[in-house]
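Inverse folding, one chain.
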């Protein structure tokens, strides 16, 4: 009775781990959402929008003023020129934007290239849209394995998903790597779907680069981003897709029939966010860099081996030497016995590698991270 497309994936392990954390009163470093408040100004703007009766459907592809502001932001920050009338679709988070993009692009049997480790929803998005995922493992240091990438492209390849900065490993793609991807997309007539939701959470002076800003990729990229991570409002579900007008009109059709539109008053509030000064974004990245350093230190002391993330708000760590459990069993043990929840690496890998890794988020208050550190000390006893 159920579609065969659903046979190939299970429910979200990230959300399962979050629930397990609640049951066991564990510190939740599993699901990536802030446990600290969103900026007052943006919350007040949401309340005001509701009280001023912005409570009915907005334009399906997003309120005009919000699209105008996104267009300006895309010009200034991403170096992408987007016509707000035709090239921008406001969606219910990047999650919807990605699914709408895939449904708009894919014919049954098309292949989609996905770098591994990958964010949990890319596999299911491929399955639902009828695409066959081709996983391309990143090197041990999360750089691109050029040979593996080149050999993944073929006549059936329709799209490639990029996530920079990346969830779960914190990789920030370099200009040379994006250039390599762009050249291959041009050669094989492939669309890059670029998930840039963590674009403002970037460390150590690195710069965020959007592949959609490359001239040759102008007509070949769907750039996805949103407000969840930038303004700490993951529950609002406001994101957007930017693409030239033919691609955008396909995305808009799917988006319309999936959702009718994103929540109107919250779109108004996000507009307030887009007017924040540059200092807000600098402060946001600096806050997360401090939290990254703290959690990296904590995990290293507890016996995990981990790269220092270049962006986003997760650390993907190798489990301590000598651990015999696989990552799912170990994540349960950590949650139930040690009182710290993380996500097993199997959520982010198609290959066996995920059995030896756990993902921890540092999108939490300092007190929360300190409590996690206290609990993790038990691992050394
Ligand atoms: N993006 C967040 C994470 O990776 C939340 C995902 C989710 O709820 N599945 O943790």
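Residues assigned per position:
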């Amino acid at each position: 009775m159920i579609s065969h497309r659903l046979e190939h994936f299970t429910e979200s392990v990230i959300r399962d781990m979050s629930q397990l954390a609640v049951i066991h009163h564990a510190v939740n470093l599993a699901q990536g959402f802030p446990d600290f408040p969103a900026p007052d100004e943006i919350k007040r703007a949401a309340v005001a929008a509701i009280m001023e009766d912005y409570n009915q459907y907005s334009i399906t592809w997003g309120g005009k003023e919000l699209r105008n502001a996104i267009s300006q932001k895309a010009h200034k920050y991403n170096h992408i020129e987007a016509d707000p009338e035709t090239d921008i679709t406001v969606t219910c988070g990047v999650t919807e934007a990605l699914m709408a993009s895939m449904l708009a692009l894919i014919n049954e049997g098309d292949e989609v290239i996905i770098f591994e480790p990958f964010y949990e929803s890319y596999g299911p998005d491929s399955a639902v849209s009828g695409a066959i995922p081709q996983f391309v493992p990143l090197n041990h240091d999360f750089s691109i394995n050029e040979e593996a990438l080149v050999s993944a492209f073929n006549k059936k390849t329709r799209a490639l998903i990029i996530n920079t900065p990346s969830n779960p490993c914190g990789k920030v793609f370099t200009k040379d790597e994006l250039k390599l991807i762009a050249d291959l997309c041009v050669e094989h007539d492939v669309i890059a779907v670029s998930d840039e939701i963590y674009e403002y959470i970037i460390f150590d002076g690195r710069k965020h680069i959007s592949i959609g800003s490359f001239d040759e990729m102008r007509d070949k990229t769907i750039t996805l981003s949103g407000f969840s991570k930038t303004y700490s409002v993951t529950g609002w579900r406001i994101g957007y897709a930017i693409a030239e007008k033919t691609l955008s009109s396909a995305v808009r059709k799917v988006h319309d029939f999936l959702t009718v539109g994103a929540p109107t008053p919250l779109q108004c509030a996000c507009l307030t966010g887009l007017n924040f000064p540059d200092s807000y974004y600098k402060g946001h990245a600096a806050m997360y860099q401090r939290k990254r350093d703290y959690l990296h230190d904590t995990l290293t002391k507890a016996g995990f081996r981990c790269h220092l993330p270049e962006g986003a708000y997760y650390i993907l760590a190798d489990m301590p030497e000598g651990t015999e459990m696989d990552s799912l069993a170990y994540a349960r043990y950590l949650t139930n016995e040690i009182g710290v929840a993380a996500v097993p690496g199997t959520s982010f890998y198609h290959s066996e590698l995920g059995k030896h890794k756990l993902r921890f988020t540092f999108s939490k208050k300092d007190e929360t991270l300190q409590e996690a550190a206290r609990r993790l000390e038990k691992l050394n006893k």
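The chain has two domains: 2-38+279-380, 56-274. The longest helix spans residues 278-301.
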